[in-house]
């Protein structure tokens, strides 16, 4: 979902 | 993943490894601000809370462990390793960095994308990372000169967020609705804080003289 997408950066 | 973000992560990893190597090899932390290192340890601790709950990729988890491990090791060396601690410049490293922590926490409670525990701490870590270099830059100005390893550390640290800005521009144009104002603004502020350091670093490199 959107969450994982936004938190894929370090 | 794109080349800008990969280059940014590699630059960031090298910056912390350069510093850790320097401290471990020559058993000295002269010219290094432990306050900046503590702020970075807090940044990683609050940003990577989801390391066990949400798995993104092997690379992502591996890099989080590298950043957590290196930042806490550097703080440990500077605070508790006798030989290294002796070279710590306590009189000059006097920036009241707890005020930075407090103000970033308050700001995160006010401005965030979602009001959840993880999201507020994640936002806090972005605000704190933007200003974490301040104690180090103040120490740099006080001690007037800087050994080249610390200079390389700061240069790489400033460069990594600049590469991330290119990554955000790239993702904005290639991914629909990729918009994250808080990340972008904090990343820009962070990079701008290094601007004058980059200027003097470039001058010292161009005139091939010691950075001071």
Q: Count of helices of chain B?
A: 10
What structural category do the secondary elements of chain B indicate?
A: mainly alpha
State the share of residues found in helices of chain B, binned by percent: over 70%
The end-to-end span of chain B amounts to: 37 Å
Beta-strand percentage range of chain A: under 5%
Question: How many beta-strand segments of chain B?
Answer: 0
> Which value, in Å, is the CA radius of gyration of chain B?
17 Å
H and E order of chain B: HHHHHHHHHH
What is the H/E string of chain A? H
Based on Cα principal axes, name the global outline of chain A: rod-shaped
Radius of gyration of chain A: 6 Å
Query: How many strand units of chain A?
Result: 0
List unreliable stretches of 5+ residues of chain B. Answer: none
Indicate the overall shape of chain B. Answer: globular
Describe the sheet with the most strands of chain A. Answer: none
**What's the overall average pLDDT of chain B, rounded?**
94
Distance between the termini of chain A: 18 Å
Q: What's the tally of helices of chain A?
A: 1
Give the helix level of chain A as a range of percent.
Answer: 40-55%
Which regions of chain A contain 5 or more consecutive residues with pLDDT less than 50? none
Task: Provide the descriptors you would attach to this structure in a database record.
heterodimer, A: 10 residues, mainly alpha, 0% strand, B: 212 residues, globular
Care to describe what's here?
The complex is a heterodimer of chains A (10) and B (212). Chain A has 10 residues and is an all-alpha fold. Chain A is 50% helix and 0% strand. Chain A is built from 1 helix and no strands. Chain A has one helix at 2-6. Chain A is rod-shaped. Chain B has 212 residues and is mainly alpha-helical. Chain B contains 10 helices and no strands. Chain B has helices at residues 3-26, 34-47, 58-80, 82-86, 97-110, 117-131, 134-143, 148-174, 181-193, 195-206. In chain B, helix 2 (34-47) packs antiparallel against helix 6. The longest helix of chain B is centred in the last third of the chain and has 27 residues, at 148-174. Chain B starts with a helix and ends in a 6-residue tail after the last helix. Chain A binds chain B through residues 3-4, 6-10, and chain B through 5, 9, 12, 50, 54, 56-57, 60, 63-64, 67, 122, 164, 167, 180, 183.
